[in-house]
C-alpha cells in the first residue's frame, strides 16, 4: 500500500467513508501493478494507467466505475506532486469515454507493408518503367518507411530530401510537428532515379518533389496496391498500420516524433489500439486465462 501520509492527506480533505473508498480504489490499481510486475504506484506512468483501464474494460468493469477508480488514482498522484515526489500528475485529464475507438480496422503487418513496397517498386526499377509508376513507388516508400500522410507528401520540396545524408526532412503543419527521418536502404536508389531522371519529365518542375495533384497520385497508387493486397483500404490505412508497427519497437515519445504528432494524446490512441490487439491475441490463444 502507498505511503501512510496519503491517508493523512485524504483525511484532511474528505470524510472517513470517502477516504476508505479512495484507498479501496487505489488498492485495485496497486494490486494490478504488482500482478503485472510493474513499478510501484509512484513510478507508474500514463501508459500504465491506460493499460489498467483497458484491462478493466476487458474484465467487464463499467466505464463509470473505472472513472471512479481513476479519480482516486489521480488524487494519489496529486498528493505526490504536492509533496514534491513527482513533477507531473500522469492521471491528470484521463477520463474514459465509453467504448475505446479503434484508429484503424485490420492494420497491415510490417511484413505486409514491406512486401507491398517491394512488389510495387520492382517494376519501377526497370529501364522501361512509366514515370508515374516510379513517382508513385517513391511516394509509397515514404509512406511505408517514414509514415508520411498526404498533406506532408504534397508539401515536400527538393531541399527536404538529402540523399547524401540518407535523410528526409518533413516540415510541420497546422496539425503536425516537423521531423527528420532516416531513409531506408531500399528507398535510396529509386529516389535517386526519380529525382534525377524521372521528375524533370513530369513537369512543371518547381520545388515540389511531387508535381501535380497529390490526391490524384495517391488515388492511382492505392488502386494499384489493392490489386497486390486486397486488404489495403486507403492512404490513412497504410499510415495507421505503420504507426502501429512502430509502437511495437519504440516508446510512445519516439513514435510521437516519428509520426509528427503535435500532442501525445494522438499517439496514445494508436498505443491503446496496439494494447487492444495484444489483448485480443491473448484471448484468442488463452480463452480461459
Automatic annotation (TrEMBL):
Sequence ranges assigned to domain Tyr recombinase in this UniProt record: 103-287
Protein name (Swiss-Prot/TrEMBL): Integrase/recombinase XerD
InterPro entries membership: CB (IPR044068), DNA_brk_join_enz (IPR011010), Integrase-like_cat_sf (IPR013762), Integrase_catalytic (IPR002104), Integrase_recombinase_N (IPR010998), Integrase_SAM-like_N (IPR004107), Tyrosine_recombinase_XerCD (IPR050090)
Entry similarity comment: Belongs to the 'phage' integrase family.
Alphabetized GO MF terms: DNA binding
Limits of the Core-binding (CB) domain: 1-81
Example of a GO biological process term: DNA integration
UniProt entry keywords in alphabetical sequence: DNA integration, DNA recombination, DNA-binding
Alphabetical list of Pfam families matching this protein: Phage_int_SAM_1, Phage_integrase
Gene3D superfamilies linked to this entry: 1.10.150.130, Intergrase catalytic core
CDD domains in the cross-refs: DNA_BRE_C
Amino acid at each position: 500500500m502507498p505511503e501512510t501520509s496519503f491517508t493523512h492527506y485524504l483525511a484532511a480533505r474528505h470524510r472517513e467513508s470517502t477516504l476508505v473508498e479512495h484507498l479501496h480504489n487505489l488498492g485495485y490499481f496497486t494490486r494490478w501493478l504488482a500482478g503485472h510486475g510493474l513499478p510501484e504506484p509512484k513510478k507508474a506512468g500514463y501508459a500504465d494507467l491506460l493499460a489498467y483501464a483497458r484491462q478493466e474494460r476487458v474484465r467487464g468493469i463499467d466505464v463509470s466505475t473505472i472513472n471512479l477508480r481513476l479519480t482516486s488514482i489521480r488524487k494519489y498522484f496529486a498528493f505526490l506532486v504536492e509533496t514534491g515526489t513527482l513533477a507531473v500528475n500522469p492521471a491528470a485529464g484521463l477520463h474514459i469515454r465509453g467504448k475505446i475507438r479503434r484508429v484503424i480496422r485490420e492494420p497491415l503487418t510490417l511484413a505486409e507493408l514491406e512486401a507491398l513496397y517491394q512488389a510495387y517498386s520492382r517494376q519501377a526499377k526497370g529501364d522501361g518503367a512509366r514515370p508515374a509508376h516510379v513517382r508513385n513507388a517513391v511516394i509509397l516508400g515514404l509512406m511505408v518507411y517514414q509514415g508520411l500522410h498526404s498533406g506532408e507528401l504534397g508539401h515536400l520540396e527538393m531541399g527536404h530530401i538529402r540523399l547524401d545524408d540518407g535523410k528526409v526532412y518533413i516540415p510541420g503543419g497546422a496539425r503536425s510537428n516537423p521531423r527528420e527521418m532516416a531513409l531506408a536502404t531500399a528507398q535510396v536508389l529509386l529516389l535517386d532515379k526519380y529525382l534525377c531522371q524521372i521528375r524533370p519529365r513530369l513537369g512543371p518542375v518547381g520545388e515540389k518533389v511531387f508535381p501535380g495533384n497529390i490526391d490524384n497520385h495517391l488515388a492511382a497508387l492505392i488502386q494499384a496496391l489493392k490489386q497486390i493486397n486486397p486488404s489495403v483500404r486507403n492512404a490513412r490505412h497504410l499510415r495507421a498500420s505503420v504507426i502501429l508497427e512502430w509502437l511495437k519497437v519504440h516508446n510512445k515519445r519516439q513514435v510521437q516524433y516519428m509520426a509528427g504528432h503535435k500532442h501525445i494524446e494522438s499517439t496514445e490512441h494508436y498505443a491503446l489500439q496496439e494494447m487492444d490487439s495484444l489483448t485480443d491475441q491473448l484471448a484468442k490463444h488463452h480463452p480461459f486465462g
